[in-house]
Design a protein that fits this description.
By secondary structure, the chain is α/β, with parallel strands linked by helices. The protein is about 30% helix and about 25% strand. The strands form three sheets. Strands 3, 4, 5, 6, 7, 14 and 15 form a seven-stranded mixed beta sheet that branches. α3 packs across α4 and α3 crosses α9. It is globular and about 60 Å long. One of its GO terms (molecular function) is quinone reductase (NADPH) activity.
């Protein structure tokens, strides 16, 4: 089968389109013929070697939309089932294997292309908003990187939940209108957001801030996070750790919560099924959707990575297998 493999860390040029063996399933696993996969920023970090030591060669990719080709005996899945999944050894390939606890059926009304936009970003966003941030209608929330996959999904979910004030941040002013169209009442750049949030809230600050950028953005978030507020930290796309002190929290009664979908997939996969059911239904009924920035063929994954790194896109970049 065709796949994209990586034999060393480096630029997008290290991604090689080649032929590899068809994977075999084990106990409680499912073989899936992939239709689409998505490109996530975590793929870029792993390609560069920023996510720990890997055994070469390996496949990148977190999620797929496709059709079950084979299932283990006694499985809840059958050949022909339409699914989304988190494969165990990467998703940039024609066929993938996944633990059946990380495979979720999708209805015929949901296209594979649309379904491919949702596994990582929508499941993560739903958990961030409802389980980790525990956002209420009366809250004032800030969503960093609001034009990206997770950010744009968070904005839509917050609007759907009736959140009072939704504030987005972007790295480029050209993305402001896109984020407002999704449902944010206010959108600011990273340079100005802290001051603007304080102005909007009469210096009371935001209730919940969702931060996947880290670095200086985390520090500035604390400048506009109100008393008893919560900073939800779930990534560091800036490549820099945020400098936080215990004194930033105890006297102001504020909270810092961390979350990783990767950790949850590995250690608590049972938490994902009910969330997946919710978001699949939302996408199938067009209550939320993600703009597809561009579709690349599998052989052009390197070009997709370059687009992600340029940050000159809105929504999701996906790969047609």
């Amino acid at each position: 089968m065709k796949a994209i493999i990586q034999k060393e860390y480096g630029s997008a040029d290290v991604l090689s389109y080649t032929e590899i063996d068809l994977p075999k399933i084990g106990e409680n696993e499912v073989l899936i013929k992939a239709k689409f996969t998505s490109v996530n920023y975590a793929d870029i970090k792993k390609r560069l070697g920023n996510k720990g030591q890997d055994k070469f060669p390996f496949l990148l990719g977190l999620d797929i939309a496709g059709v079950v080709e084979e299932a283990a005996d006694g499985s809840m899945f059958s050949k022909g089932d339409r699914v989304i999944a988190f494969p165990k050894n990467g998703s940039y390939a024609e066929y993938v294997v996944a633990d059946q606890r990380l495979v979720f059926k999708i209805p015929d009304t949901l296209s594979f292309k649309k379904a491919a936009t949702l596994p990582t970003v929508a499941i993560l966003s739903y958990m961030l908003l409802h389980e980790i941030g525990q956002v209420k209608e009366t809250d004032t929330i800030v969503i960093h990187s609001a034009a990206g996959g997770v950010g744009s999904t968070l904005v839509q979910l917050a609007k759907l939940a009736g959140v009072k004030t939704i504030i987005g941040t972007v790295g480029q002013v050209e993305k402001v209108n896109y984020v407002k169209h999704l449902g944010a009442q206010y959108v600011f750049t990273y340079e100005e957001f802290a001051e603007e949030v304080l102005k909007l809230t009469d210096h009371k600050g935001a209730t919940v801030i969702f931060d996947s950028v880290a670095g200086d953005v985390s520090r500035r978030s604390l400048e506009c996070l109100g008393l008893y507020g919560t900073l939800v930290q779930f990534g560091n796309s800036s490549g820099k750790a945020g400098a936080l002190k215990t004194s930033d929290f105890h006297s102001s009664c504020r909270n810092l919560k961390g979350f990783s979908l990767g950790t949850t997939r590995k250690h608590a996969p049972e938490r994902l099924a009910p969330v997946a059911e919710e978001v699949i239904d939302l996408f199938a009924k067009d209550r939320i959707s993600l703009k597809v920035a561009k579709v690349f063929p599998l052989s052009k994954v390197a070009e997709a990575h370059r687009l992600i790194e340029s940050r000159n896109y809105e929504g999701k970049v996906i790969i047609k297998i």
